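BUG: 3D viewer hangs when loading the predicted structure for this chain

Environment: internal workstation, default settings.
Expected: structure renders.
Actual: progress bar stalls at 90%.

Input used:
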Amino acid sequence: MSSNNVVIKIAQPYAVALLELAKTKKATERVSKDIQLVQNTLSQSEKLKNFLANPLKTVEAKKQVIGATFGDQISENTLSFLMILVDRKRIAMLDTIANKYLELAYQMDSLTIANISTSIALKSDQENLLIEKIKVMTQAKEVKLIISVDPELIGGFTIQIGSKVIDTSIRGQLRQMASHLDVVAT
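Structure tokens produced before the viewer hung:
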């Protein structure tokens, strides 16, 4: 089992617990916004991500940084959850837990998340067309695109919906040809 699968298996119960807490407090939308804010902050600050993942930093230091960074921007429920992650030494998995939480929350709302990597930025009409195609493919009521630009794709794009990946990139096609040539050569 790969280490990524292990992390996902560990993250799942925390994501489910946060979703259950949010549902009982009737704050699912608020907690989802909080988690998106935390995720965005982590993606923009490699320094913060590294600090929280550093096992040499004390629990108290991590709590202080989390409180100072997010204290006035997120709800008390979300802040308490982050503190629990620090106490249980799971804060390094926050990004995976957040992804899993959002996946479960969106699933509950019949919303499909599609992670799109493109070689260049998409125009809004291209995004709308992609949303409509994904709605047809997944039979979802709503589709949310999370778009990232990856120039290494050379051209085209990749779509990830859950565990399913559709790769139309030139890089993917080159890899496919290379693996086919390896099979033919042997």
